[in-house]
Design brief:
mainly beta; Jelly Rolls; eight-stranded antiparallel sheet; seven-stranded antiparallel sheet; 15 strands; secreted; calcium; complement component C1q complex binding; disulfide bond; PTX_dom
């Protein structure tokens, strides 16, 4: 249970990462991924990387620069432009549904204009899920200049789209529906220089 704790990725650039183990029975036709990050990086960095043997960017939440997030599904991406941050915690949720290709992006509890991506695609279930690195091969192929440095917390993955109420609940750390990856019952393995510490502030 990592409640009120964070992963601290101490080095920049870094070769460290955290492997997450999800209980996924079948391929994903819908998903929502949420997480909280705190960093002073201005270079590109990966926040959440879900790779299959067929596709290294099966699901990827990536920040190429301070004013932009990218959400990848099946190797294709859409871009969400955001105001340049105040160097504070940023909470992001990205959800996608195969039937319509609709991709939602929420930043700090507020939705951005929806975009279309990979309608009809199915996300594979046999996945390597990593925090802190962007996979260019299944479980590896890292470029340290896409690595994350800073603090990560409140990581969740659902095999469904969350309602607006639940998106806001995730931002406020309220009660959430059962997830395939949940911060409060996370199965993980640290590889390299990552430390679990209490969160310093809300």
């Amino acid at each position: 249970d990592l409640y009120r704790k964070v992963f601290v990725f101490r080095k920049d650039p870094s070769d460290a990462y955290v492997v997450l183990r999800a209980k996924l029975e079948q391929p994903l036709q819908n998903f929502t991924v949420c997480l909280r990050s705190y960093t002073d990086l201005t270079r590109p960095h990966s926040l959440f990387s879900y790779a299959t043997k067929a596709q290294d960017n099966e699901i990827l939440v990536f920040k190429p620069k301070p004013s932009e997030y990218r959400v990848y599904v099946g190797g294709k991406f859409v871009t969400f432009r955001i105001p340049e941050g105040r160097r504070d915690w940023e909470h992001v949720c990205a959800s996608w549904e195969s039937a319509t290709g609709i991709t939602e992006f929420w930043l700090n509890g507020k939705p951005w204009p929806r975009k279309g991506l990979q309608r009809g695609y199915i996300v594979g279930a046999e996945a390597a899920i990593l925090l802190g690195q962007e996979q260019d091969a299944f479980g590896g192929g890292f470029d340290v200049y896409n690595s994350f440095s800073g603090e990560l917390a409140d990581v969740y993955l659902w095999d469904m789209g969350l309602s607006p109420d639940k998106m806001r609940a995730a931002y406020q750390s309220l009660r959430l529906p059962p997830a395939v990856l949940a911060w409060k019952s996370l199965s993980y393995e640290v590889k390299g220089d990552v430390v679990v510490k209490p969160r310093l502030r809300e």
